[in-house]
Amino acid sequence: MRLTDLAGSMELTPVVPAVGWLKFNVDGDARGDGLLGGIGGILKNEFGVSLLSFSSRVGVGPPVLPEVLAIFNLFLKFEFYGMYNLVMESDCKVAIDWIHEPSNVPSCLKIWIYKIAEVALLNRFLFLHMEAD
């Protein structure tokens, strides 16, 4: 399973979604030892109006796990509500690369990345990697 890299290699700046599209910015972070972490995200429409947000603690795992869980949480919401036309922005290049090429995912994260990729293939989603401030 492989997703086309819609963003290409162009220089990216923060994106305002087009009419009819939504933008979800997700983030996750963990302590260096992987024992504590948190996730969060905010969904906005093309006018910048916040429609949904979430935050949660996550447990033990590799440092990239919180970012993957933040993206996974987003996709559960989108699948449940049947939404599409989504620009998803994350500062975790590794997680975005894994969504585009799930065969490269470590086995401990495959269940989440494969589900994200499956839902993304059935809908119109654009994944963007934005450098953290």
Q: Helices and strands, in N-to-C order?
A: EEEHEHHE
Q: How far apart lie the N and C ends?
A: 32 Å
- Domains, number: 1
Summed over residues and divided by their number, the pLDDT gives a mean of: 75
- CATH homologous superfamily label: Ribonuclease H-like superfamily/Ribonuclease H
By CATH, the topology is Nucleotidyltransferase, domain 5
Which stretches of 5+ consecutive residues score pLDDT under 50?
1-12
Task: Give structural attributes.
Nucleotidyltransferase, domain 5, disordered N terminus, 5-stranded mixed β-sheet, single chain, 133 residues, alpha/beta, globular
Overview of this protein structure:
- With 133 residues, the chain is of the alpha/beta class.
- It has three helices and five strands, in the order βββαβααβ.
- The protein has one domain (22-129): Nucleotidyltransferase, domain 5.
- Helix 1 packs parallel to helix 3 and helix 2 (93-100) crosses helix 3.
- The N and C termini lie far apart (32 Å).
